[in-house]
Design a protein that fits this description.
Blueprint lengths: L1 E5 L6 H10 L1 H4 L3 E5 L3 H18 L5 E5 L2 H5 L4 E4 L5 H14 L9 H25 L5 E4 L4 H11 L5 E3 L3 H12 L8 E8 L2 E9 L2 E2 L1 H11 L5 H5 L1 H5 L13 H13 L4 E2 L4 H4 L1 H7 L6 H23 L11 H15 L3 E8 L12 E9 L2 E4 L7 H23 L2 H10 L6 H14 L9
Parallel strand pairs: 1-2, 1-4, 2-3, 4-5, 5-6
Antiparallel strand pairs: 7-8, 8-9, 8-10, 11-12, 12-13
Helix pairs in contact: 1-3, 1-16, 3-15, 5-6, 5-15, 5-19, 6-7, 6-17, 7-17, 9-12, 17-18, 18-19
The chain binds nicotinamide-adenine-dinucleotide, 6-O-phosphono-alpha-D-glucopyranose and manganese (II) ion.
The site of manganese (II) ion has 5 residues, from loops.
């Protein structure tokens, strides 16, 4: 049993490997392979991965670190993809260019997300093709690589038969925060219902021990004026520190948890995904952003610096501080999904999949994020009632934006990409869309398909 991690040099690799190794018996894993195109980075990350497998957990799992596609994918059972095309340097551009034009600058939303999408679509198709060529015919690709909404639409159009499931850790991170706020220790017993597009959805029900806890949660959010656990709010220092385990509560993430309160003041019915803030409070996001210091800078100064400085320190002193790498729900989620596929458990997961009537008033071919039961043949999706006009209207605008972007990338069409930028809710006018797009073409010369 072989698991290949594509983007082996990621800041999340060590955490994912730890989650895999802790599930060794259920996954029956013999070998983990790391594959990346950036040798220096992956070689460093491999040091801490080896420590986890051999020293910390004494797992007996073999580690292979490679830069060769055949060696990486050969006979693999699972491919966990998590690549960041253009690294944080390009994420910084994705965030700063739109902000310069007064628009939301974000990793996966708005113009930044579209820029990231245009860089990632074709490298992701290569992952699918390499897996098809070398991996087991029964392989599964579990993909975290962002922007997952655009990537999954590109997969649907360009590789409709690929054995890939696109996923996101944000809903589960929200459930972590809900559990902490509601003082629920066994969060695995929380059952929720959810619909949307990736980074664009709503929880419609959250149950614990058979009881709907959304009314209590609604009350809690109203009282606290934010969705964060009271314990975190008391300890402002923990909230600011980069070493706390829950990375989603750090730095500028604060605003989106505050935004959940602000959205629910107007629309209390559902619990919004934190990412809806970028669309529903775009103006406010720009106002509290620092165009010279964005989330990319925060991450480079915290998660990335902690990891690589920690590895250097280990290499010098032989002492490792576990806090240098991030472990938690992000790794657990992808490893548990692999268990469900391999062992046919039919456990319930949120995944991104083709609608096919699941949401009756969304197009058949929309890539939606909905609950599914996961077994050896893949996801079995649960169909639902029609959604409200507000949510459907927002989703249609975002969906058509993503579809136009993917079409524009495939056809090399400047006009279609400009239509995608113009349609996006975070961009106020056609001329602003064009100005951002033209700056982004310049910044992404090395990565984007040519647009004519
Ligand atoms: P990172 O830059 O630390 O790691 C990404 C790695 O991918 C780098 O080592 C880079 O060299 C490598 N890479 C780039 N292009 C590649 C290619 N063509 N082939 C193979 N490897 C390549 O980034 P990170 O912050 O650790 O995030 C990793 C990815 O996971 C990003 O795409 C991020 O957006 C995504 N992510 C997704 C979710 C989700 O909810 N879906 C959650 C967290 C992170
Ligand atoms: C959440 C989202 C991911 C996104 C990440 C960014 O986990 O689900 O899709 O990549 O946040 O987190 P960061 O700490 O890098 O800003
Ligand atoms: Mn996500």
């Amino acid at each position: 049993m072989i698991i290949t991690i594509v983007g082996g040099g990621s800041t999340f690799t060590a955490g994912i490997v730890k989650s895999i190794a802790l599930r060794k018996d259920e996954l029956e894993v013999d070998e983990i392979r790391l594959f990346d195109i950036y040798k220096e980075r992956q070689d460093k990350v491999a040091v801490v991965v080896k420590w986890i497998l051999d020293e910390e957990l004494k797992s007996g799992i073999k580690l292979t670190v490679t830069y060769d596609e055949k060696e990486a994918y050969d006979n693999a059972d699972f491919i966990f993809a998590q690549m960041r095309v253009g690294l944080y340097a390009m994420r910084e551009q994705d965030e700063k260019i739109p902000l310069k034009h007064g628009c939301v600058g974000q990793e996966t939303c708005g113009a930044g997300g579209m820029a990231y999408g245009l860089r990632t679509i074709f490298p992701m198709m290569k992952v699918i093709d390499d897996a098809e060529k070398y991996a087991k015919p029964t392989h599964w690709i579990l993909n975290y690589s962002n922007p997952a909404a655009i990537v999954s639409e590109a997969c649907r159009v360009l590789r409709p038969n690929a054995r890939i499931i696109n996923i996101c850790d944000m809903p589960i991170a929200i459930i972590d925060v809900v559990a902490a706020a509601m003082e629920i220790k066994d969060k695995q017993n929380i059952v929720y219902d959810y619909f949307g597009l990736n980074h664009f959805g709503w929880f419609t029900k959250i149950e614990y021990q058979g009881k709907d806890i959304l009314p209590d949660l609604r009350q809690y959010i109203k009282e606290q004026q934010i969705l964060l656990p009271a314990a975190y709010l008391k300890d402002k220092q923990a909230l600011a520190s980069s070493n706390d385990k829950n990375r989603h509560t750090k730095g500028s993430w604060y605003y989106v948890w505050k935004g959940v309160y602000e959205i629910m003041e107007n629309f209390p019915d559902k619990l919004p995904n934190t990412y809806l803030n970028y669309y529903l409070q775009a103006k406010e996001f720009v106002e509290h952003s620092d165009p010279n210091h964005t989330r990319a800078n925060e991450v480079m100064e915290s998660r990335e610096a902690n990891l690589f400085n920690g590895i250097d320190k280990y290499l010098e002193t032989g002492v490792i501080d576990e806090k240098v790498f991030y472990a938690g729900s992000h790794g657990d989620w992808i490893a548990d999904l692999a268990i469900a596929l391999k062992n046919d458990t039919k456990q319930r997961f949120l995944i991104i999949t083709e609608n096919r009537g699941t949401i009756p008033n969304m197009p058949y071919d929309a890539m939606v994020e909905v609950p599914a039961y996961i077994g050896k043949n893949g996801p079995e999706v649960i169909s639902r009632d029609p959604i409200g006009l507000f949510e459907q209207g927002l989703m249609m605008q975002q969906l058509n934006c993503e579809k136009l972007l993917v079409q524009g990338a495939i056809e090399g069409s400047y006009e279609k990409v400009l239509q995608a930028f113009t349609l996006n809710k975070t961009i106020p006018s056609m001329s602003v869309a064009k100005a951002i797009l033209d700056d982004m073409i310049e910044a992404n010369k090395e990565y984007w398909p040519e647009l004519k």
